[in-house]
């Protein structure tokens, strides 16, 4: 809710002659631009939800993380009050070999004062090398407290001397408070929607997961979150011909989650599972990488390791309460810097 004092402050800012050239502009380095993974859209929704609450009277401008930025774009970025990059696997230990965020020497020389917002590390890796550490130290804001997705990411940044960092969890989880989670059913639904991951295939274990779902649910839906997920699913189509495919659109997934009351989520897509939790659905995320495993450690996200079919079966069939440990005080500490 926008307070009258917030509105008055920003109108005064715009009317002030001394601030006539200052625009209340917030930059968002957005991984959802040019993405082929709808999980990035889920992350972007959460980032904007939180930033809109934090800066209700500001304008927002998007910048891509997957493309190199031009000098002209950087001039625009310099006009922002803050620039945030949010909630994704955007950091890694060797930018020369792999980087989701297209940063290089030119970006480091420009220095951007970017603020991290619930970001995470790409896979388990060694300490960042000198090249990567130098770029991150130049690009990231040196005074404002950065927010990261998990403790592993925080420790990686601490290892290169970036100490102004706090573990808040991913912004996609910030609204999953105890009161909200208490409304999520603990017992099995009649139907289930599942996901697969095109870039992390395990045909034997994924087939066992699907077989289990077909055995224990009346109706089984498949939602392709990534661009090649449906191609991977074709490997199982002959064995499970009655599975219904949801169109590869976020609005189609949301519609399914909203329209079916007795529906569970099971799958390897982390943010597909978190989206389902947001829609009040009982969810079991299959852990296939560091993201889900670290979030399970930190906030007790409901994760079962891939291949652990007995545990998965038990969690499907027996009551399972959603009791997440969202670091609310850390989130509020991070947000309070911008008040």
Give the spatial strand order of the biggest sheet. 2-1-3-4-5-6
CATH T-level topology of the largest domain: Rossmann fold
Beta-strand portion reads 15-25%
Gyration radius, rounded: 21 Å
Summing up helix and strand content along with how strands pair, one would put the structural category as alpha/beta
By CATH, the architecture of the largest domain is named 3-Layer(aba) Sandwich
Give the count of helical stretches.
14
Low-confidence stretches: 1-21
Keywords: Transferase
Pfam families: PS_pyruv_trans
GO molecular function: transferase activity
Domain Polysaccharide pyruvyl transferase: 37-290
Gist of the model:
With 339 residues, this protein is α/β, with parallel strands linked by helices. The protein has helices at residues 4-15, 38-54, 71-77, 105-110, 130-139, 151-158, 178-181, 203-216, 229-237, 250-259, 270-278, 290-299, 309-317, 328-336, and strands at 25-30, 59-64, 82-86, 114-119, 146-148, 165-167, 191-195, 219-222, 244-245, 263-267, 282-287, 303-305.
């Amino acid at each position: 809710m926008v307070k009258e004092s917030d509105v008055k402050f920003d109108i005064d800012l715009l009317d002030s002659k001394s601030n006539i050239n200052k625009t209340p502009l917030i930059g968002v380095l957005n991984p959802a631009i040019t993405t082929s993974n709808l999980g990035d859209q889920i992350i972007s929704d959460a980032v904007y939800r939180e930033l809109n609450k934090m800066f209700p009277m500001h304008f927002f401008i998007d910048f891509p993380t997957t493309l190199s930025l031009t000098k002209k774009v950087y001039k625009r970025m310099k006009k922002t009050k803050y620039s945030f990059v949010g909630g994704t696997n955007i950091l890694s230990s060797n930018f020369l070999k792999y980087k989701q965020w297209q940063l290089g020497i030119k970006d480091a020389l420009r220095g951007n004062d970017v603020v991290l917002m619930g970001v995470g590390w790409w896979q388990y890796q060694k300490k960042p090398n000198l090249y990567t550490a130098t770029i991150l130290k130049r690009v990231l804001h040196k005074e404002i407290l950065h927010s990261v997705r998990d403790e592993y990411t925080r420790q990686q940044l601490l290892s290169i001397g970036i100490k102004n960092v706090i573990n808040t969890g991913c912004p996609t989880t910030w609204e999953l408070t105890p009161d909200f989670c208490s409304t999520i059913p603990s017992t099995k639904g009649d139907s289930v929607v599942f996901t697969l991951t095109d870039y992390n295939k395990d045909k034997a274990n994924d087939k066992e997961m699907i077989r289990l779902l077909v055995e224990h649910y009346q109706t089984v839906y498949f939602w392709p979150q990534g661009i090649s997920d449906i191609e991977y699913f074709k490997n199982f189509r002959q064995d499970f011909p009655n599975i219904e495919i949801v169109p590869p659109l976020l609005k189609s997934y949301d519609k399914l989650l909203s329209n079916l009351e007795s529906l569970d989520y099971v799958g390897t897509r982390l943010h597909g599972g978190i989206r389902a939790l947001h829609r009040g659905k009982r969810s079991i995320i299959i852990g296939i990488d560091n993201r889900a495993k670290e979030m399970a450690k930190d906030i007790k996200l409901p994760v079962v390791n891939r291949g652990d079919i007995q545990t998965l079966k038990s969690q499907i069939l027996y009551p399972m309460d959603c009791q997440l440990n969202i670091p609310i005080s850390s989130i509020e500490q991070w947000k309070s810097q911008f008040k």
